[in-house]
């Protein structure tokens, strides 16, 4: 079967004259206010050759906003990091430093796991 053909929902043919094929909705998540972000901080060393990484979980919003947040946190902590595939990480154990920065900048619900 050719890759150019798209078959949404597995429907091949319809006799209904008012039939409209299913359209995939591109849901762009809106970024919540910092006060209502349910952010959790977690230290992880798995699959990183024993190096510690601080994971930032629970951020609800656009990818651009997540990248901006990670950029500001990297600058504050003085270390590297990234934001991709809904996962934000900062290299090193900076849980307390990040928690204090988040509270200072209006992020309310911050937990350390």
Task: Write a structural description.
The chain is 22% helix and 22% strand. The model has no long low-confidence stretch (mean pLDDT 85). It is built from 2 helices and 5 strands; from the N terminus they run ββαββαβ. By secondary structure, it is an alpha+beta fold. A hairpin with an 8-residue loop joins strand 1 and strand 2 (53-57). It has helices spanning 63-77, 95-104; strands at residues 38-44, 53-57, 81-84, 87-91, 109-112. The termini are far apart. It has a single domain (33-112), classed as SUI1-like domain (Translation Initiation Factor Eif1, 2-Layer Sandwich). The protein is elongated. Strands 3-4-2-1-5 form a 5-stranded mixed beta sheet, with helices on one face.
Major pleated sheet: 5 strands, mixed
Q: Kindly give the count of domains.
A: 1
* Low-confidence sequence ranges: none
> Could you name the CATH class?
Alpha Beta
Q: In percent, how helical is the residue content?
A: 10-25%
Number of strands: 5
Mean pLDDT: 85
Q: Which structural class should the secondary elements be placed in?
A: alpha+beta
- Examine the coordinates and then state which fold CATH places here, giving the name of the CATH topology: Translation Initiation Factor Eif1
Number of helices: 2
The CA-CA distance between the termini, in Å, is: 48 Å
Alpha-carbon Rg, integer: 20 Å
Can you identify the CATH superfamily? Answer: SUI1-like domain
Shape: elongated
Strand order of the largest sheet: 3-4-2-1-5
Give the name of the CATH architecture.
2-Layer Sandwich
Estimate what percentage of residues fall within beta strands: 15-25%
Order of helices and strands: EEHEEHE
């Amino acid at each position: 079967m050719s890759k150019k053909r798209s078959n949404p929902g597995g429907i091949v043919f319809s006799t209904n004259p008012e039939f409209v094929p299913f359209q995939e909705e591109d849901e762009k998540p809106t970024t919540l206010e910092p006060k209502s972000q349910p952010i959790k901080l977690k230290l992880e060393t798995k699959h990183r050759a024993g190096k510690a990484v601080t994971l930032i979980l629970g951020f609800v919003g656009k990818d651009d906003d997540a990248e901006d947040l990670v950029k500001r946190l990297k600058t504050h902590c003085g270390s590297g990091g990234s934001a991709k595939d809904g996962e934000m990480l900062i290299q090193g154990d900076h849980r307390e430093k990040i928690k204090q920065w988040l509270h200072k900048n209006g992020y309310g619900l911050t937990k350390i796991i």
